Amino acid sequence: MNSKDVSRRLFLKQALALSAATAIPSFWTPIKANAAYPGTKLVGANERINLACCGIGNRGGEIIGDLYKTGLVNIVALCDVDMGAKHTQKIMNQFPDAPRFQDFRKMFDKMANQIDAVSVGVPDFSHFPIVMTAMSLGKHVYVEKPMARTFNEVELMIKGAQKYKVATQMGNQGHSEANYFQFKAWVDAGIIKDVTAITAHMNSSRRWHGWDTNIKNYPAGEPLPETLDWDTWLGTAKYHEYNHDYHYGQWRCWYDFGLGALGDWGAHIIDTAHQFLDLGLPYEVNPVKLDGYNKFFFPQASTLSFKFPKRGNMPPVEITWYDGVNNIPSVPEGYGVSQLDPNIPPTSTGKIQPAKLNPGKIIYSKELTFKGGSHGSTLSIIPKEKAEAMASKLPEVPKSPSNHFKNFLLGCKGEEQCRSSFEIAGPLSQVLSLGVLAQRMNTKLKFDRNKKVITNNKLANQLLYNEPRKGWEEYYKM
Predict the structure, then answer these.
(1) What is the pLDDT of residues 347-393, one digit of tens each?
(2) In terms of Cα–Cα distance, which of 422, 451, 440, 458 is closest to 283?
(3) SS3 state of residue 329
(4) Half-sphere exposure of residue 27: CA atoms within 13 angstroms, side-chain side
(5) What are phi and psi of 105, to 5 degrees?
(6) CA angle 353-354-356, nearest 5°?
(7) Which residue from 61, 128, 159, 310 has the fewest beta carbons nearer than 10 Å?
(8) 317-323 and 195-202: which strand pairing?
(9) Which residue ranges form the domains of the chain, and what is each CATH number?
(10) What is the pTM of this model?
């Protein structure tokens, strides 16, 4: 990207900001007070939302399909760095008239005034520049989980949503399903209270399991696929020559690009506990066990301890995270059978293993113990005898008025509050990034929750921030 491109884009943003101060674009209704997002530029109640889609293959394509099925959107632009590759064909064929781009910057340059909202279904490390650009132009944003790779990028995204007053939603879709409403109702009714410990677990095979943990360097460069814009794929990330073990989901394996099993599944497993127990940020993260530790990609198995302080009248909580095929946590007496839960989607590499402990959590309070799965799976009280004794005291759980995708789009209209907005999903994503940092450093981290700094390790504290590649600095100043 040359200086002329940067100047052109900055000019566009300034021009849009100036025009917004004097006129309201035709595809927005007038700014009005609303309970969901005061000051937000709303899409009219009877209008479809003009949606631009960044990332159209694999998970990105699934997001587009789910947003489109609501009947609330027009697909007005498609953007993918590998546009034309096999995995992008389905969406290209479904929306043949939508303009196509390989570079999100060119898409916004050309079409900013035709876009209301943006879906971001690209690798974790690529979320940040797209989201910051979209928000700075007043566009509502739906972004896959976790929000970004580094702690500071998430922090800037939280502040950006507040500054630009846009509707935002992170894609942990279970946060709009039964688990969300049950957890909230049980907390409000005092069924879930005085929680002291949570075991969270995801023990299925991951892409990097079985790799040589004695590697000395990153993979060597390979010929670049003709369809792929590698420089834009890298975005703000540290430069690496193309290798197939970075592409098509393999990026999740590497510290420079992904957040491992914790970043992939933590947002689906601990999300409701994090929100409704008001956990915020931990004061300590400790890598209790790292099997197959190396400096390049994630361990073969990890046990991580997150400690959260007392909050009001709620006691301190420790979350212990387990991943790795054979790194199975112990379960309490009366746990019952670990059966395959139909509400838990398969991993990106295959099926959940029903013979192992399926993804989920065990929540320990002073009086009760709960077990639950992932995504929208609900909790149950264990053992069975205790559940039967509590049955008459359980409150009625309301049904979800909208799924996660419709909830976001109604948020764009000011009709609902986004359930996983950056205000809520941001601190959760930061918990995950701190856990990954403890894995990468292989050391205990002490964290100042107020100053948001690591106090016992200077290098780890520096790694809270991402140093962008030359030419990509502007996104950290928006």
Answers:
(1) 554 444 444 788 999 999 999 999 999 999 999 999 999 999 999 99
(2) 451
(3) coil
(4) 17
(5) -65, -40
(6) 75
(7) 310
(8) parallel
(9) 3-173+409-425 (3.40.50.720)
(10) 0.90
